[in-house]
Amino acid sequence: MLTTLFYIPSEISLGSTSLPLFGWGVLFFVLLVLGTAAIMLTGRQRGFREALESLLIPLVISGIVIVWGLPALDDGQGIPVRGYGTMLVAAAAAGTWLSIIRGRKIGIDADTIVALGLEVFLAGIAGARIFFVLEYHEQFFSADKSLLQSILAIINIPAGGLVVFGALPTASIAAWMFSKRRHISITQLADCIAPGLLVGLSLGRIGCFLNGCCYGGLCELPWAVEFPAGSPPWFDQVSRGLISKPGIDGSTVQTLPIHPAQLYASLDAALLALLAIAFTPFARRDGEVFALVITLHPISRILLEEIRIDEPPALGTPLSISQLMSVGILACAMLFWWWLLTQPQQKPRQQTLQTTAKER
Fold first, then answer.
1. Quick one: 58 and 187 in the same domain?
2. What is the dihedral of CA 205, 211, 217, 219, to 10 degrees?
3. What's the pLDDT tens digit per position in 150-189?
4. Interatomic CA distance for residues 200 and 96, integer angstroms
5. Of the candidates 13, 45, 77, which is a domain's last residue?
6. What is the Cα 271 distance to its own chain's centre?
């Protein structure tokens, strides 16, 4: 567990002068210059209308984060760089990189994938955070917190607290709107980014491990892990009387050994990503790779939830909210497969490449 990696100072010292880095400071000025340059360069290549459509919204959102979001995270020592937040950024970068490679093979350029990745990432983060806040609302809205404190706690995403399934509706809507604006087949686009989403999920789960959330139950296996005092599983075990509370002298103990459920989920997502990539040449219809992902991931999630103990049963059932959503997604996947089977078949990409080679 490594919640905070390091701190970014809020000011830059230039001799006897100090300049603010965030807010209306240096970082905002850099964004303004780079954003203007990007719009001008893209505008000359593709037209200023398309440049504004693809870059304006991401730049505005980035500006809002720099001016108001980041200063709210300053805890007096600077802005903490969390292990969880760092892995989210790494997840977005790795998923986008893989999607760029896959996009080139089907004629989708890198700029399009980057623009899509940024919109889907931001929309997904927003949806995942909203779902987490709704599910654990007592952590954000209580009698001892003012409205401002609640809002600051909600926007402090780098500290942890996202529900993956909460990202699906918002990210899906963002991708659909993007495909409509760019006149790209949504099923082809879904196939392109599906493995990248899984790679991102795999890295994101490592962030969960660094943060201590999404933890598993007691475990006696050789790879069981112990978390330090103050971590989510530590508070859980103290509340259940499994370990002692801090002593009078302030002494604490680590948790009892538990399943590294976060690493299980990370490995699961990585293997599913490899399977989706391997299946791509054999897909006979656009959308089959995405359909495979939304079929297998809910099944593995249902099984992995049996190891986790951080989510209680929901809606009067023995299943957690994530398991219930997995069942719903699995049902949607079956309907999607049914619709795909009504579409005309295409030649497998591997066969198409072999035919083209023979003709040459």
1. no
2. 90
3. 787 787 776 667 777 778 888 888 888 988 888 888 999 9
4. 9
5. 77
6. 17
